[in-house]
């Protein structure tokens, strides 16, 4: 295995595997819903979260002018609904109604919240700005709730016990995943001096082992290429006759 170049515009794909959310909005009593893969918390106090939405989406203007949005964390149960809501636009008809996905009234905002989800946030629009080719909407969380089968309220993290009660991770295309259990980092407080002395031996050994393996593979690959070049001139990347200068 070698490190292979990615197009700069594909670098973002390396951030795949994060939770997908379904953003709900409402405009003049008509609700809408779209999946959003690009979301993140941006402040604890005040509690602010960001979602990144392209201006071509119907939801874009519904959020901008409605000045609020709901964030619904879908479970695996509604994978197909999640995908479909991202394949059609609300401009083509009332897609949330068409999806038949049940929804319920929010506590504070007008946009509804969705069944089949395991966590919900209600947000008022705090700010929005265009960065590159998308709009970042910053929402102030005014209410939040989670399913007790899915969320550990003491630890403040997902329980991850039952596949039906895990957040849905989005990898790209039509591909999703679920978080596979947990493990803790076994690291104690250390000064930089201590760290420089001791390091984390096992992890460094593993990295070194992997680097050596890659070097070996790369050398083998080069040898193989050279051998092929000698025996089969057609496969050589060099021109057989050098051009006259
Ligand atoms: C899983 C998934 C994640 C998506 N993430 C985003 C996103 O982060 N931002 C965005 O603008 N569009 C995203 N899309 C595309 C929109 O959801 C899609 O264009 C949708 O139809 C917009 O609906 P609307 O026009 O009714 O608002 C995603 C689509 C899928 C299937």
Low-confidence region ranges:
233-243
How many separate helices?
A: 5
Bound small-molecule species: flavin mononucleotide
Number of domains: 2
Shape: globular
Biggest β-sheet: strands ordered side by side in the sheet: 3-2-6-9-10-5-4
Rg from alpha-carbon coordinates: 25 Å
CATH architecture type of the largest domain: Roll
CATH-wise, what's the superfamily of the largest domain? Electron Transport, Fmn-binding Protein, Chain A
Largest sheet: 7 strands, antiparallel
- Approximately how much beta-strand content do the residues carry? 25-35%
Q: Kindly, what is the distance between the CA atoms of the first and last residues, rounded to a whole number of angstroms?
A: 39 Å
Q: How many β strands by DSSP? A: 14
Helix content: 10-25%
What are its keywords?
alpha+beta, three-stranded antiparallel sheet, globular, disordered C terminus
